[in-house]
Design brief:
single chain, mainly alpha, two-stranded antiparallel ribbon, two-stranded antiparallel sheet
């Protein structure tokens, strides 16, 4: 059983997931700093200098509901989701470009399909 666990834990997928979680946590702290120190102060300009973190609803039993902190968390999530979307989109574009690199071209003289690296057409012997 220990041997099976070791094989599982050292599989590539598990290690990739672990690295992803660690980098994700570090990325979250960067986004938190961005939202707390740059974006929220800019938003407070449009809201008349209000600080979302101070938005609190006092309940009758003396408890406080900090809905401003929730708004900050939602903004954090939206920014993280947007950045991850942009990264995945860029990675997919790079992957697509490599897979779709042409391997053939059309001879401008005889219009036959030839190898992309050809300097002379094998069909009409034209220099390319």
């Amino acid at each position: 059983m220990l041997k099976e666990f070791k094989e599982f834990a050292l599989q590539g997928n598990v290690m990739d997931l672990a690295v992803g979680v660690i980098i994700g946590a570090a990325f979250k702290s960067i986004i938190d700093a961005l939202v707390d120190n740059i974006i929220m102060p800019l938003i407070s300009i449009f809201t008349g200098g209000l600080n979302f973190d101070k938005w609190v609803l006092n309940l009758p039993n003396g408890a406080k509901m900090s809905y401003g902190t929730f708004i900050s968390a939602v903004i954090n999530f939206i920014i993280i989701a947007l950045v991850i979307f942009l990264i995945v989109k860029a990675m997919n574009k790079l992957r697509r470009t490599k897979e779709e690199d042409p391997t053939t071209k059309v001879c401008p003289h005889c219009k036959s399909e030839i190898d992309i690296t050809a300097t002379k057409c094998p069909n009409c012997t034209s220099d390319l």
